[in-house]
Structure formats: C-alpha cells, structure tokens
Give the backbone structure.
Amino acid sequence: MCSPATLMSPLLMTGNRTVATAALVESIVVRVGLVSAYVVIWHTSYIFKLFFPELWRIPTSFLLTGDGFSMIMEPYFLYRYISELEVGNARFPRKEDVVYYLMFVSVALIVSLSHELCQGVPSTRDTYVLSHYVLLCLSMFAQALK
C-alpha cells in the first residue's frame, strides 16, 4: 500500500521550490486582480458546504502572502526553511516527513485559530492569511534544530 506522500514523489523531489513558486504565483495573481482574494482565503462556511464544498481554499489559504516586499520575502523564506528541513535533518530522514510535518502544522493552525476563522468578520487584518503562521512555525522549528 502506497502512502499519499509516495504517490506525490515528483512533487516531493522539488517540494521547496513548488511551495515557494505556488506562494509567489498565487500572491501575484491575487494582487494583480486576476483572481479575487476572497476566493482563495479561508472561509469556513464555504469550505464545509454540503453541496460543492470549496476545498481549494484549504491549501490556497496557506500560500497567500502579504503585500509589497513581503510578497517576495515570504516565498524566499518558505523555500529556505523547507530546504533546511529537507536536507541534512535527522528528524526528517525522508522527504515525505516534511510533507507530513507541514500537514500537521496546517491542521494545528486551523484548530488553534478555529474560533477566529469561524467568525464572519476577521478579528485582525491578516487572520485569513495563514502563510504568516506557517512561516513562523517553520522558522522556529528550523532554528531549534541548528
């Protein structure tokens, strides 16, 4: 039986570049106005609809970055920290382990922010931009392993 991570082996070979490129492309597309930011942010009532749930909001809410200079710096640091975790890390001997770690961090963030995410109006400006939280967790974990 194959694990989900081994089925995505082409993606895992360049996982850090894929995540960083997806974050940069999504942010540029949203900032240029080709896609509304409202379509990609986390909105609980649209994700858990009975008919036609908008499941793309789950990964895309973690890829949207901030405005201006952070649009370039956040994908760079995503690339850097994921590369540090993939290469030469005793806790992640396989590349699949980094994917499982990212999935765990994402679920933990959703659970810990569930009160704010389930409200109709965000309590802060960046509540629905979850990439800030993922980047913080990656940087703290990468620094702790040094």
